[in-house]
Design a protein that fits this description.
Largest interface: A-B, 40 and 30 residues
CATH superfamily of chain A: P-loop containing nucleotide triphosphate hydrolases
Number of domains of chain A: 1
Shape of chain A: globular
Order of helices and strands of chain B: HHEEEEHEEHEEHEEEHEEHEHHHHHH
CATH topology of chain A: Rossmann fold
CATH architecture of chain A: 3-Layer(aba) Sandwich
Oligomer: heterodimer
Number of domains of chain B: 2
Structural class of chain B: alpha+beta
Number of helices of chain B: 13
Chain lengths: 226, 395
Amino acid sequence: MSTDAILLQALDITKSFSQDGTPAQALKGVSLGVAAGEFVSLVGRSGSGKSTFVSVLSTLLKPDSGQLLYNGQDLALAGEAEIDAIRHRDFAVIFQFHYLLPYLTALENTLLPFMRGLRPVTRVQKARAFECLERVGLADKAQRLPGQLSGGEQQRVAIARALVKDARVLFADEPTGSLDSATGATVMELLAGIRGDGLSVVMVTHNEEYARLADRVVRMEDGLVV
Amino acid sequence: MNILTIALRNARKKWVRTSLLLLVFSLGVVSIVALSFVSRVVGEGLEKKLVSFGANILVSPKSEKLTVSYGGFALGDMLFDVTYLDEAATEAKINAIALRKNISVIAPKLVVLDRVAGVPAAIVGVRFDREKLLKGYWTVAQGDFPTKPEGLLVGSAAAAKLGLKLGDAVPLAVAGGGSAGSQLVVQGILAPTGSEDDNVLLGDLGYLQRVTHRPSKVNFVEVAALCSACPIDDIVSQLGTVLPDTEIKTLRGIVQQRMVSVLFVKKLILSVSLVILLTGCSMVGISMLSAVNERKKEIGILRSLGFSRRSVFAIFSAEAAAVGLLAGLVGYVAGYFVSFRILAVLELESTAPLPFEPLHLVATALVLALLTSLASLFPAWKAASIEPSEALVTL
């Protein structure tokens, strides 16, 4: 993989937290490059730092040191508005829990990235959201509230929300963690299918079988890539 | 669908909390609006009643007058020249001022000096219909208010001193400017008032102008102005502009007494309104603050989707503003109708009109939306300060 093709690059990232007054280093100088269209799986035991690392990569968490480059731009030097814009335009995140807004329908939850301002959602955006719901097999449940959907369906709405804005990088933190094996397999099929869209995927998982669906498996242990 | 959808849908989802907040705030607005309407009507009613206790502005021609007193002994005024005002022109000019709606009575007067049974007496020409409005304290002890042009209403002290009874004829001396043979007839005698009216004879202004050959002439004009809606100084200033050759005096004591009564009611209402608003705003603030703590995850989701801090701030502010806007609209309309009920209970419904003003409705709703937004400033700022990692990231 040439350096030019790298879309997202983390260099020597460190991150510490305070646990009961004792500092604990979650990341001890982790580096990783993700190429455009590449599917990378981060695997490791609980507490290995993989979730912390994916949060840093997705800009949800600021590292203590190290560099995070997106499209060659050092995000440490970018302003908050610029990072918000990148997160809005180019990044999509799927969490272990679906994190849908309970008072919005499946369609409205899918459209959420377009509801940032006063400008109303366009017909094209609505059509796109409907298309995404169709892709995850929920077109017929577009008007249902999250409470009226099963856990797997809720996670599929979260995937549709991640797909709707044509992001360039999708971060998935244990996307099947809260699902039974059958539903988890369906969700993984969807994520594997996304690769064909030219989207880069960084997925955190415990499941070795799911990890093998990726182009590359990165193992983490004790805050380091091994 | 836009950012406001998020705010409004959440308010709908949490309908119990929203309804309670709306109910409490609307009740507050109802109280404020009703108090304001009732105070306005009571104030105007009070003003109208106070007007019947006399005028508060005096318009007279500029004259060269010298008040002579020596050693504390008053020798009276020395008039070098008696000038008159033209009644019609003066009234027309008073009617033309911008604050005309604040003037309730214009009462012109012509004073004629005469001798009745050899005793000097003053006959004051008045417009009885207006004088009755201005002097609600007048009571006719004998007879009635004059119905004929030559009819006279005699003050109690004057009647006693001059020995006048109902039906007595009072010849108007030529010295007083009267036409030969003209005379006035006593039609009523006033009960004692404790004012200057006790010492004079009151006749019809038009008749006196005619028989004294002073057509349309008056010595001065008394004006009763309503002071609740504007400072009296503004009215005086406008009168001074349209009547440059006159002296305009305010009877400050009367004005200040009226203003004190009206302002007291206004201050009381303002204080109560402020307490209600403060309580309502505190409730909104506390409720929003607890909502921020409840909705941390939601804020994290929005931030992870690229919503800026400003957008998160806007969602919480919009939610509070929506409550204020709705409470303003509902509260104003309900308050308007409640004030009718209160006025009916107080038997004041006919005191003054209570017009429904759509502009006030809009202004009330907007002011309340602004107030609730201000009350939610801290919660909204707190929401905007939440880091996505703080809300979502499991480490």
